[in-house]
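Lecture notes, unit on protein representations.

Consider one protein chain, 164 amino acids long.
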Amino acid sequence: MSRKKPWLKNYPENTPEELVFDPRKTLVRILDEAETEYSDNKAFVNFGVSMSYRQVAKDSRSFAAYLQNVLGLKKGDRLAIMMPNLLQYPVAVFGALRAGLIVVNVNPLYTPRELEHQLRDSGAKAILIFEGSAHVLQEVMDKVSIEHVIITKIGDYLGSFKGP
């Protein structure tokens, strides 16, 4: 074990020190391979709710179709994503990448001035935003070139309430 990598002692015994990746392999292809190999395994967990690789892949395909066919976004267009860590995030990122879009990550704690700068600088045409941050976007909408606003809520992927 290398002294430069003390974390390796915490890895399973047969884990190689270095992983080799194909630099031509896209994130979408990696997700598709994970869907095939680990389809029903947990890919993401949030607030006690899990999402399988199959569900992420399926929902990201649907979101990509929405971005292209409903919003009319084209390859190379930019989608800003302004949300905290929610299950919607990986679906949005993989969906945008499937649609050929460029993802612009936006800090959900940005002030209106910071958000305006990032949206202008990035040239984002659309934004997927957490409802708790929508008031910040509202303050700058007349100063930016956002054509489409998609609002997501914290519970969109959490299912219905369960009693005791």
